[in-house]
Amino acid sequence: MIVKKTYKDQVIDHIYQLILADHLKPGDRLKESLLALEMGISRAPIREAMKELMTLGLIDYKPQIGNFLPILTPKQIIDSYTTRGVLEGYAVMSASEHFTRQDLKCLDRLVDDMGQAAKGGEHKQVVDIGGDFHDFLVARSDNQQLLEYSSRLSLKLHVLFYKHWGMLYRPDEIEQRHRAIVTSIKAQDKVRIEQVVRDHYVETGSKIVAVQALNSVTVV
Amino acid sequence: MIVKKTYKDQVIDHIYQLILADHLKPGDRLKESLLALEMGISRAPIREAMKELMTLGLIDYKPQIGNFLPILTPKQIIDSYTTRGVLEGYAVMSASEHFTRQDLKCLDRLVDDMGQAAKGGEHKQVVDIGGDFHDFLVARSDNQQLLEYSSRLSLKLHVLFYKHWGMLYRPDEIEQRHRAIVTSIKAQDKVRIEQVVRDHYVETGSKIVAVQALNSVTVV
DNA sequence: AATGTGTCTAATGTCGACAATCGACGAGCG
DNA sequence: CGCTCGTCGATTGTCGACATTAGACACATT
After folding, report:
1. DSSP assignment of B135-159, as one string?
2. A39 beta carbon < 7 A from strand D?
3. Which of A22, A126, A197, A209 could form a disulfide with A74 if both were Cys (CB 3.0 to 4.6 A apart)?
């Protein structure tokens, strides 16, 4: 791959950045004409991008009305994280035998690095390593269908996660939480692997809900 | 709701029917201009429909090249059914406590009807009741995110299932397979529920692959 | 004053035409 | 004779304009 050039893809990136940068807030309406004007292109690629963002779960589309940033209820957040846990839990469990000794070493190292970065306050670093860790975990699965859904959800949830990762866990918790996954894989206990991964995500979902509730109280 | 009138939705239905009716075969290319001409509309709604069909997994989109009916490899079929089993398994398991005595009675009756229809050779009836049965099962779950993915997969797999349901199971097998799910719910054994549902789908996926292999041998 | 109706506006849905790109075919070269 | 490269046709990507619809506002009516 050299570059992606189609306008549609650029629009997707643009909007995704707008969301991450908080220039767009949940509930906001995305007007095609306005976006087209801002980006100096026609509405066609904007609409294409909308359709794709819709499948990624990043925007809500209401026929004849418009596109909106979804307002996720606490329940929807929990549900999304739960679903991701179900998918990735199965992915890791079913691939657990394929992890080589070297893979496990690599995973342990990632957890080490994550812990170090967390203690050093390198938040950006923590998020990046966390992403690598989870990518590495699911990469051993060969179920493309499952991975596709998993990565879609991952993108959707990343927006939420990105805004709260600073307040979710303490450094030692971060390390411990991820270490538990590696440990369960080492133990080759399939039932436990699946459970640990599920809990991992449900816990994060719950924390995010809690943090959001806290923020909304202080803000309002 | 009175009717859905937007062209896009009509296009989606149209193409879906074309697929079910075998007027479109795996690997076929879907040319926008041609479809637009056939349906007497412009390419815009066709493209909109394509995007949606893509998210449903019913067509493959290759940038700058075109849209194709996916050629599912045996592995992809198994993977898709496995994934559906994972999703619905969790859905049913997590909702198992919400099934009332009446719900279970209704499920038992559906299985009875299914068995009767199967013995009577009412294939269409069997498929319909089977659909009702599975809808009823997952409807007790309240995880919208999970249900969304589940129903998308369901639509995608229905195309496959629809073409083979006549040769997959014997009447007594059909009844027994579905009865096992109801029985596991009655037993309130969460682990077993999830396992039974997963097996249910993996088995069907495997059968379809087997039947396809058989057909391709006889045809070629 | 509250409710229902009609109009008006702004946004989405659709259109036909043009531009950019991919795959195939064939000419030229080693 | 086989391979590379350029041209060509067909299809998708993009455009600007028009048609249609949802929602807001004002007015009339009870």
Report:
1. HHHHHT---HHHHHHHHHHHHHHHH
2. no
3. A209
Average pLDDT over residues B47-75: 94
- Which bases along strand D come within 7 Å of a protein CB atom? 11-17, 21-23
Secondary structure of residue B67 in the 3-state scheme: strand
Q: Is A64 exposed, middle or buried (0-12, 13-18, 19+ CB in 10 A)?
A: exposed
Bridge-based pairing of strands A60-62 and A66-68 is antiparallel
Closest listed residue to residue A85, CA positions, set B81, B184, B145, B190: B145
User: Six-digit token pair at B15?
Assistant: 């193409």
Q: A49 vs A7, A26, A33, A58, A217, CA distance in Å? A: 9, 18, 13, 11, 35
User: Minimal Cα–Cα distance from A86 to chain B, Å?
Assistant: 7
- Mark which residues 127-146 of B lie under 8 Å from A by CB: 142-146
Residue B6: band (very low, low, confident or very high) from pLDDT cuts 50, 70, 90: confident
For residue B44, say whether its CB is under 7 Å from any atom of strand D: yes
Of residues A160, A2, A150, A147, the one with CA closest to residue A69: A160
3-state secondary structure of A68: strand
User: Tokens for A10?
Assistant: 């650029």
**pLDDT over 70 at A118, yes or no:** yes
Tell me the whole-structure pTM to 2 decimals.
0.92
Distance of C1' in D28 from CA in A65, Å: 29
- Chain C nucleotides close to protein (CB under 7 A) are 11-17, 21-23
| Cβ–Cβ under 8 Å, residues B90 and A86 | yes
Please determine, for residue B216, whether its predicted confidence score (pLDDT) is greater than 60.
Answer: yes
Q: Among candidates B27, B35, B32, which has minimal Cα distance to B68?
A: B27
Give the tens place of pLDDT for each residue, A132-150: 999 999 999 999 999 999 9
**B118-140 tens-digit pLDDT:** 999 888 899 999 999 999 999 99
Across the A:B interface, residue pairs with CB atoms under 8 Å apart total 59
